[in-house]
């Protein structure tokens, strides 16, 4: 590892791929660099579609014994994995900050969040209940069984290199499935380290594979085309989600799609302004604005607009930008140059159409992919930020007059993942929470991420839910058994 850190457990920095229970070096290598410094961290095995096929075959072979394992025994292995992840939280956080760039405090938080899905689904594994239904005819028994869906393929993004993986692997293994994971090429190290600990926890060989690759298209085609794969779980952009949706049609796979967002963040006149500012900072600038549930549009009612903007500007200016490995850093680098260019494009488009920069607005003097936390006012629906997901540290503020108007504006998007609003009038809270067309609504809070709640979007933000007691359903098939008791 070529940056300043050392790991307590050096074996957590794995560069081989984990394929069908074997660590394989592969013929090609994939470079992993630190977005804060540009330094090479490691070169990992660059796997192929053939490796993915091998992993799928291994998962199919390992599944029957795993599905036949008593749920309590499966749960015990998942629990041991949870314990190992938490025992190695610091090393895993350092790896994550090195490859993804988020501040170390956020990485520690993500490791705990990622582990919580393993803990949660270890418990859910023991509660996969069926039904016995009163038969309409005598001499019959009607049963409903729930069985594992089959081999699962997962494709995950770079912005949450651990949590987006355990949010899929947890329920898959709990349900009795095997799973093959293709992490983002930018952040494979966290995924491989999780596999080291899964193996240590006693997960039987073949049930989990991690296939880093520079050939996302080829591996994706294997995952979506291989008939042994019965479910595809994807987290990433809506554009790629639609592509994978189409590719999965020929083998009629179950799909879990966690896609892009365009979250409105609405502040009504009766809001607690200080709390709203705290929520806006938490929602907008977490992971340098690179989360699917980041506030993407801030709507502020006319009566408190100026007071809110002034206090938000003070808070934005106070954010500490730098290498996430350094103490006290709150905003790290963006993942790559293209991400910075998108933020610049959104700012240029907005200011050209009349918006004003209150603070930030340009690349950081730190250079590289660091960008100044930015606040714009005078933003309108005619600007790109109104319809496109910025995925960077840019907060565009729209002024609004009345509730019906702002709900119409907030819902005027093809996305429907997360929305937030601050208000204290109880009738308004109910009206607005029910009127917003989103899978997730935060009321008087900017942070909604937890394993106990169903996470997912509507419209072009996706299909299905992850986490919560609902999250295991998509990894199960329902079988109806009609049992005649009068043998002919
Ligand atoms: N809804 C959610 O829970 C959620 C969570 C995180 C990120 N996201 C979204 O993801 C996007 C940012 O992440 P990203 O840049 O990694 O997204 P992305 O869609 O570019 O990549 C996501 C994953 O898909 C893979 N991929 C890319 N092209 C592929 C192809 N042709 N076939 C198969 N796989 C392919 C990538 O290698 C990566 O592993 C944003 O839109 C964000 O909103 C959504
Ligand atoms: O980027 C999307 C993730 O799902 C964010 S989180 O789960 O809300 O932390």
From TrEMBL:
GO molecular function: succinate-semialdehyde dehydrogenase (NAD+) activity; succinate-semialdehyde dehydrogenase (NADP+) activity
One example of a Gene Ontology biological process annotation: gamma-aminobutyric acid catabolic process
SUPFAM superfamilies on file: ALDH-like
Name of a matching Pfam family: Aldedh
TM spans (from-to): none
UniProt-listed InterPro entries: Ald_DH/histidinol_DH, Ald_DH_C, Ald_DH_CS_CYS, Ald_DH_CS_GLU, Ald_DH_N, Aldehyde_DH_dom, Aldehyde_DH_Superfamily, Succ_semiAld_DH
Start and end residues of each Aldehyde dehydrogenase domain: 23-481
Domain of life of the native organism: Bacteria
Family the entry assigns: Belongs to the aldehyde dehydrogenase family.
PANTHER family named among the record's database cross-references: SUCCINATE-SEMIALDEHYDE DEHYDROGENASE, MITOCHONDRIAL (PTHR43353)
Protein name: Succinate-semialdehyde dehydrogenase NADP(+)
Protein species of origin: Sphingopyxis granuli
Lineage: Bacteria, Pseudomonadati, Pseudomonadota, Alphaproteobacteria, Sphingomonadales
């Amino acid at each position: 590892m070529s940056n300043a850190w050392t790991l307590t457990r050096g074996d957590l920095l794995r560069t081989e791929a984990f394929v069908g229970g074997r660590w394989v070096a592969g013929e090609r290598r994939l470079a992993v660099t630190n977005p804060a410094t540009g330094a090479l961290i490691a070169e990992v095995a660059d796997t192929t579609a053939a490796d993915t096929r091998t992993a799928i075959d291994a998962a199919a072979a390992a599944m029957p014994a795993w599905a036949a394992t008593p749920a309590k025994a499966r749960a015990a292995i998942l629990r041991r994995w949870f314990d190992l992840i938490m025992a190695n939280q610091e090393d895993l956080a350092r790896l994550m900050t090195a490859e993804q760039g988020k501040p170390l405090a956020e990485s520690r938080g993500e490791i705990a969040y990622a582990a919580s899905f393993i803990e949660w689904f270890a418990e859910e594994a023991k509660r996969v209940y069926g039904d016995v239904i009163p038969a309409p005819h005598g001499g019959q028994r009607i049963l409903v069984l729930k069985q594992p869906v089959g081999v699962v393929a997962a494709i995950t993004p770079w912005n949450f290199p651990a949590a987006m993986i355990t949010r899929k692997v947890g329920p898959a293994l709990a349900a009795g499935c095997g799973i093959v994971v293709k992490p983002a090429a930018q952040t494979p190290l966290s995924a491989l380290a999780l596999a080291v600990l899964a193996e240590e926890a006693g997960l039987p060989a073949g049930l989990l594979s991690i296939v880093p690759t520079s050939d996302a298209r080829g591996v994706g085609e294997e995952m979506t085309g291989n008939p042994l794969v019965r479910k595809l779980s994807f987290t990433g952009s809506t554009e790629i989600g639609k592509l994978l949706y189409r590719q999965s049609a020929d083998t009629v796979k179950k799909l879990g799609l966690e896609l892009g967002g365009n979250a409105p963040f609405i502040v009504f006149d009766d809001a607690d302004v200080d709390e709203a500012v705290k929520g806006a900072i938490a929602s907008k600038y977490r992971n340098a604005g690179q989360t699917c549930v980041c506030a993407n549009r801030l709507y502020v009612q006319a009566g408190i607009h100026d007071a809110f903007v002034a206090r938000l500007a003070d808070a934005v200016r106070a954010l500490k930008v730098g290498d996430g490995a350094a103490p006290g850093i709150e905003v790290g680098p963006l993942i790559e140059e293209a991400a910075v260019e998108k933020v610049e494009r959104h700012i240029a488009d907005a200011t050209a159409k009349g918006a004003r920069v209150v603070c930030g607005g340009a690349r950081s003097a730190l250079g590289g992919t660091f960008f100044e936390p930015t606040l714009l006012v005078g933003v309108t629906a005619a600007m790109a930020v109104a319809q496109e997901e910025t995925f960077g540290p840019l907060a565009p503020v729209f002024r609004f007059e009345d509730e019906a108007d702002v709900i119409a504006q907030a819902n005027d998007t093809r996305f429907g993942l997360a929305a937030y609003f601050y208000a204290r009038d109880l009738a308004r809270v109910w009206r607005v929470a029910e009127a917003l067309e989103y899978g997730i609504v935060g009321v008087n809070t900017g942070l909604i991420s937890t394993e106990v709640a169903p996470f997912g979007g509507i419209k072009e933000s996706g299909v299905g839910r992850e986490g919560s007691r609902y999250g295991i359903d998509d990894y199960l098939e329902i079988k109806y058994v009609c049992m005649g008791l009068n043998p002919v």
